[in-house]
Amino acid sequence: MFSSVCKFLGNPAPLFLLLCALPVLAGFIAWLFRSKRHGALQMATVLVFGAANLFLALSLYAGGGASGSLSFLGEEFDLSMIVSGVSALMLLLTAFVFLGVSAASCAWFRTREQGGLFLLYLFISLGMVNGALISDHLGVLLFFWEGLLGTLSGFMLLKNREKPATALKALAVSATADLLLMLGIVTTVHVAGTSYMSEIHLLSTEGLGGVGLVLMLLGAMGKLGAYPFHSWIPDAADDAPTPFLAAFPGSLQKILGAYLSIRVVNGLYAVTPGSGMRLFILIMGGITLLCGSFMALAQKDIKRMLAYHTVGVSGLILMSIGSGYAAGLVGGIFLLISHVIAQSGLFIAAGAIEDRTGSTELAKISGLSKLMPVTAVCFIVLSLCSVGLPGLAGFPAGMLALGAAKSGGIVFYLIGLLGIFLATVAFFKMIRSAFFGPLHLPKGHLSVSEARSGMLVPAALSVLACIFFGVYSAFPVDRLIQPSLGLFEELSGYTLTITLFVLPLLMLALALVDHILGAKKGGAPQATAHMEGLPVLKQCYALAQGGKLDPYNWMMAAFSGFADACQWIENGVSWFYDKGIPGFVTGIATALHRYWNGSISRYLIIALAGVAGILVIFLAVML
Amino acid sequence: MNGLIPVLCVLIPLLGSCLLPFIGKKSPKVRNALALVFVAAAFVLSLAALPALLNGNPLSIHVTLPLGLSFGLVADALALFMALTSSFVAIIIVIYSFGYIKEYDNQNEYYMMVVLFIGAMMGIVYSTNLILIYMFWEISSVCCWRLIGFYRTEITIVRANKAFYITVMGALIMLAGFIGIYAETGTFDLEAMKSTPIPAWTVVLILFGILSKSATFPLHSWLPDAGVAPSPVTSLLHAAVLVKIGVFVYVRLFVKTFSTPAVFTLVVPIIAGVSALISAGCALRATDIKRVIAYSTISQLAFILLGISCGTEAGLIGGLLYILAHSVAKGGLFLCAGVVEHNVHTKDITKMGGLYKRFPITATAFALCSLSVMGIPPFSGYFAKHLVIDGIMQAGHPVLSAVFILGAVMTVLYLARVFAKVFLGPQTFPDAKEGVPTMTASVLILAIVALALGFAINLPSQLATMVWEAI
Question: Are B369 and B329 a contacting pair, CB within 8 Å?
């Protein structure tokens, strides 16, 4: 059956329409059912269209892919589409995660305003992501890629139009990354002489090619949520609807960012292991991992902590993909799969907590496992998956990624280990604070009930997927990822080495000990206080608190300085026209007025001088 | 008959405008309706000339006169592209004016000047003769002068004079360039001068006129100051139509007709790059909504100039599509600014906020038009932006491409800033209300067209491609 559907989709028109236009249609239908009394119909729409999208993605993956081309705007924007290998796998991952996230979003908005608009933006975003994943033409890929800016802005303005700072920040940061990608794509096309990715193979990274590579990677990092394009994500945890976090920074954007990174370093450009370009990717990944992990540690809110955690994992994914080894690519993709599944589940669970208690601040909630046991189990399992506990998907994925980082250099391996330690400490603090200890609820909430089924089911499915991929890691590694990359080594057994098995487990154990010791003083919410107070770290946190370490603020300060300089130049130009020229003309007129005394001889001299002047000009032109 | 349509395109608004003051004394409603009819006639007739162009026989008229003089109009791809763009936006602006201008004096002169200006614009785009281009160019300057000074206050008169002096000075210098070309070739007829090499000094002189009209740094200073004019005027003249004359003439003369020294494919893009960045920087600082949009216009015009001057197919097609996308979206932005200003009686964005609730349609239209100017897909601005940067890169100017990207980032920043200051945040002006139906409908139409053009971008791009193929 999948093959038949795939064959049908091999025709470019149905492929494009079904994967890009169908979600848009679904979004409009969901929007039409926006009133609260149509909640069931809205959920049905979401499930039917989400399932249809999953079925199409599965067909394309199982059926061996499809390709085709629709003429739109000549060669500049030829709708050329190829679904195969990594793109087919990413399409499948997107469809799987989207189904859960959209259903959870629908449930979350059941008692809130703007659910219709949210789902409209969400489905349009799915169409854009699908479009970017199936595009073979770089210009068309960019079209869908940048199109997400529109829905991003829409999402960010849904909840809080009175305080638009985060929306502006998200737009500015994302647009900057997208425009860098545009420059990178144009440069790549210029170097390659073609816009079709299928025709570009291992371009040189010397000269303009290197510039193109870096710019394209920066664009990919923008979607991945890596440093320096990450800082709007934690802010969005405060100002955007919680399902947005699961949908955008938690899954869709991450998939797109990782997908493009893989295409760039594994196909478009010849990036050899140990080269300067590899080092650049590893360094950026390392900075992202450290930045995200350290900041996650100090958070007092579940959503903000998860937001920083997702930033940190982006760094490890980047390091893995950028290592230059086949195992690194496999590890990067596996880590992406496990993280996207776990993180979207975590955000959904956080949304469920917010939905029931009205808050995700650790100071306001505790002991929730008594009232929301299923949510608690989901949250705990997914958290443990995120930190790489054996038996869950995060463990083999993390091992492969760490192995890749180690191949890039011992420093990067140590950064990876540190990242695991910090993430585990942060998760222990969060789990223990929110779910254990005496029951404590925000004011106005005497009791709360278990999360809605619309949110529980997607979270539980995420848990099942994490367990399945953890127990049977050979399936994703050897059956899903490697074939998509055209690799056929036995990498699923790669994890059983001391540095990749024992030391990470030691990190988990150390984190547990640190948590127990740290929590002795002020309880679980203060379990990381001793680390936050360490020399250097304390100053760094203070600087971060004041926004001094935020690259967005640096960018805005630079533009502000530039704008001041431009205004200074503009003032000079205005002075020239408003004061300079009128002053000059008035001065000449005043001077001439002095000669206006009725003397014929004086007029004659002036007239002759004028004639002489004209003659000089005339002769100059003639000669 | 073959050349009648372009002649009518020019003559109907040109002569019709002279009737409007007389009719207006009898019946303002008939005057308004006729103003719309005259402008719409230019659009409809331009549309009627399209089939002939697509069949490969563009409509034209050519009369040879003594002393190398001639009279000629041609409805080629470039002319029709500009005529359709400018007359379409002008129709919307005239409809918008019905609501905006009704409270003010001098309405007869207003409609006369608007329609006369469209006639002059049609004259410029269809003309195949340098003297005719100059003549219509100056008519447009006079219209611009009267319209900027519409309110007759001291400041508006000073600003109107400034615009007039700068553009007329530029035009006179340009005329000297035309005369220089005549001295070289013995004719003013563009058809007779195809691919003729012209000396660099004539190019420099003509560039003065073009850059002053297109408000390119450092000849741009009149444009932000012209924001004192009524909003439909700023939309018509300073966003949608007038400022496009300069870039149009650049394409007509230096891309389509003459062979210019190669150095200008570097010099002009550099001037454009500097203009784009400085004006974008000023837009980040300005607090007057119309000044922000005016600086944005200067910046975007520089991008257009960058595209059309780099000498590549992608650059030229992108530049032309940019003219279309920018005319629609920026026209919409100025009209939105007008709706807000008309109701809250201030242009200072620091005094505004939270107006989304009071002006939901205008805010939506402003957001959509902003997204198009920013170049966010699927808006038409995206395709134009992408093609321009592609063209610059193909021309071998990676640094200018980077400048373009920097300017594009700043475009996002200043437009997002204006939107946030005006429509988001804590609410101000709780008693303000949405504009009258003709005004809100106008801004909404432009916003929808800005979006729709993105899905139908292959239609205008066919015309733009024909311009390139005709070179």
Answer: yes
